[in-house]
Structures are given as structure tokens and as C-alpha cells.
Amino acid sequence: MTLVAGVDSSTQSCKVVIRDARTGTLVRQGRAAHPEGTEVDPEAWWEALREALTRAGGLDGVEAMSVGAQQHGMVCLDDSGDVVRKALLWNDTRSAGAAADLVRELGGPERWAEAVGSVPVASFTVTKLRWLAEHEPDSARRTAKVCLPHDWLTWRLGGEFVTDRGDASGTGYWSPAAGEYRTDLLRAAFGALPELPEVLGPRDGAGEVKAFGDGTVRLAPGTGDNMAAALGVGALPGDVVVSIGTSGTAFAVAGSPSADPSGAVAGFADATGRFLPLVATLNAARVLDATARLLGVGLDELDRLALAAPAGAGGLVYVPYLEGERTPNLPSATGSLHGLTLGTSTPAHLARAAVEGLLCHLADAFDALGLDPARVLLIGGGARSEAVRRIAPAVFGRPVVVPEPGEYVADGAARQAAWLLGGDEPPAWEAGGSERYEADPAPGIRDRYAEVRGLR
Ligand SMILES: Nc1ncnc2c1ncn2[C@@H]1O[C@H](COP(=O)(O)OP(=O)(O)O)[C@@H](O)[C@H]1O
Ligand SMILES: O=C(CO)[C@@H](O)[C@H](O)COP(=O)(O)O
């Protein structure tokens, strides 16, 4: 049996799956935690990858490997290849002012959407580089190369300084439509032009794994985690995928590039040569974690409580901007609770309001895509919640399909690795099972949420 390895180096943890390259059957897997915080020493990702891989039984029998990882993170290297400072992650909002400055300097959001398909907010790498140039000029001066989390891990594994279209499209200095770097925008933002990784095509080789001395394991280009998830879940044109991880994302595979001057939809590229319009939120699964912590219960009990309360939580509305927010672009926002009464002051009402608030927030992201898909697929850690699955169709006003719980980012990376071994298209792995959830639409829940957060 020929095996492939897929990695998901996401915000909270690193996951490794080892699959049969021909059928996609899961053979073994492992995971390890990442540190907390919005700035992280990349070495911690490396240690987590080693640990997750060890737990997955190592690379025995593996012929190709690929790394999917959280998008946008700024990794700066000096001319010896050492990390200059901790990486600033996609959910670090300190560069919100820099983002506003860059939008103004280029002549407005339309100009950015035309140039790179997206209007930069604090998540985008280009804004982090501007922040660095302004606030840490010594670090900026020492920066000889800039790359993203998956690029850095691929480089540590095999020594080649490369990236892919999907992850490059989240930098703010690579154009998905033109397929080339906009070094003019990077230079204008950063005041210098550091070396950038070569952008590989979807099934170009990225060298071989040298780090573990395991022999000839070929490396695929890897990609950003959302692009990998699209590949892993087998998203087709006509599907919208809603991912409830640390971030919330709603995205679709598209045949042509997009450019939304409102900034809500990021016009990313995907991992197959197509495109991936995507709306991202800073707040998603951790809204459930935070509510469970507040109530002093586990996630299963949070589900039970949420499902025990009435739909609409008796008018209690939870606006989940716990980490600030990106869509809408409110980097300094905080969360809020509205409609507290004696009647709604119960754990069940709070649990229900948190689930509904999270889903209303994701439904806003879904709406911003402006699509009427044949299927809405719910994935990510938060989609393991029974309350989320059962309440989602009421809030979204349409059925949702929940693929069986799995590591779809790591699976997508594994599928990319299998593609490297042969074939004009990604291998046609058999899809796992899925469950369809239906409910009567409950538009009142979204109306009340929209009223409270003041955008309707
Ligand atoms: N049964 C569950 N109910 C609710 N949330 C869950 C459940 N299982 C996992 N999660 C949450 O999912 C999140 C991790 O999801 P994941 O997609 O792996 O995130 P990331 O890829 O951003 O690291 C965590 O915040 C975790 O608490
Ligand atoms: O910033 C984005 C997308 O633009 C996020 O989706 C990150 O890619 C982090 O993903 P998760 O760790 O939540 O999967």
C-alpha cells in the first residue's frame, strides 16, 4: 500500500493523517497542541508537527507529504534563515491601523480589490509587515525573507523556499487573477523587498523531506488551511462550505477570480488551480469554549443546555465579538449580551444564545458570499456540537449537510500529496458519510441579532 501524509498546522493544534494514496482510507493519525496567543514562535509549530507525526506512527511507508496551515501568519527570517521575531498570526489585530493606512494610500478599497482580489484587514500579511516596519524597525531591517506558516514548515521539512497559489493569495501582495506577486505593493507597505517563496502550481513538487532522514518522501506544495479543507471535503462548484474552527469561514470553489470592494469577500485562489472566494470571522468555535467555561460545564453539557432552552433564547442575544472582529471589520469590538431578564438568566438560555449568536454571525458571513448553493457543508471542530448541527438549519433558513467528523484540512493536504504521485486531477477518494440536518426556518432569531448588533 502506498501511503501519503497530510498535515493541518492550524491555530490551536497540529494534526497529521496518514492515508492510502489510492483509496484515501485512513491508516493512522496523531495530533499535538499549539501554544495560546496571537504571536507564536514558529519553532512551536515544528515541535507540534514532530510530536503529531510521532503519534501518527512516523513516515514509515509514506511516499508523499503535504502541509496545510493557518493562513496569513507573518514569518520573518534573517539572512541566515533564523526567525527574526515571533510570527504574528491571522487573528492578531494590532495591524488594524496599518490596514486602514494601506487602503487609503493606494486610493481606496476598490484599488486593492482590483490589484489582489481582497481588501486588506489586520489579518493579511501585508498589514503585519507595515506594522513591523513602523513599530519594530530593527526587526524589519533584519528581515531578509518573508513567508507563511505552511511555507516555513515545508522549508523546515525539505529546505525549499516555496509556497502555493492558495496561501499566496492571503498575503495581500500576490494577485490571484494575474498569478503573480505585486512586489510594488509589498515594497510600498514595507519599505523594502524581502525574498519571497516561489509560488508553485497545484501539483508541482516541493522537494523531498530531509528533516527526518526517512528516505525519499516527496513534498507537495501544501496550501492554506481553508484551501486544504475545500480539497479534503471534496467541495464542488455549487457547494458552500462553512467551517467552524478557531476562525469561522464560508467559502466556495469558483472558476474565476473575484474582487469585492466592500472587503467582506476575500478573493483567494484554491489548491487546484481555481479560486476560493471566502468570508472569514475571527470568532467561531471558541465562542462555545468561552461559554462552557463561563458556565463551568463541558462542551457536551453546553449542547444539552442549549437544546433545552427555547428557540430564540427568550430574547437573549449574544453578539460574539470576543476577539474583536474581522467581518464586519471591527478589530476593537468586544462581545455583548442583550435581553437579560430574570427569565433569561439561566445557564440554558445563555448556552442557547451563544450557539444562536455564533450561528447568526456565520450566517452573515454566508450571506456575504451572495450565493444560493445546492449544498451547505458544515465542518471544523465546532461542527461536532450537536446543538450547532441542530440549530444551524433554523438560523441559516436552509438544510445543512454535516460530513462525518474528521480532519478535513489534513485530509486535503494528504489528497494533494497523493495527487503529486500521479494523475491529472486529485485522486477520486470515496467520500465518507454525512448527515443532513433540517429545521423550520426561524428568521426572528436573525432579525433580533441584526437589530442588536446594529447592522440592519
Ligand atoms: N463537540 C464539540 N463541541 C463544540 N466545540 C468543539 C467540539 N469539539 C471540538 N470543538 C472545538 O473546536 C475547536 C477546534 O476546531 P478546529 O477546527 O480543530 O480548529 P483549528 O483548526 O482552528 O485549530 C476548539 O475550539 C474546540 O473546543
Ligand atoms: O484567516 C483565515 C482565513 O482567511 C483563517 O481561516 C485562518 O486560516 C485560520 O484558520 P483556523 O485555524 O481557524 O482553521
TrEMBL record:
The entry's keywords: ATP-binding, Carbohydrate metabolism, Kinase, Nucleotide-binding, Transferase, Xylose metabolism
Signal peptide start and end residues: none
PANTHER family named among the record's database cross-references: SUGAR KINASE, XYLULOSE KINASE
Organism taxonomic ancestry: Bacteria, Bacillati, Actinomycetota, Actinomycetes, Streptosporangiales
Domain Carbohydrate kinase FGGY N-terminal: 4-232
Name assigned to this protein: Xylulose kinase
Gene that this polypeptide is encoded by: xylB
Superkingdom assignment: Bacteria
E.C. number(s) listed in UniProt: 2.7.1.17
UniProt source species: Streptosporangium amethystogenes subsp. fukuiense
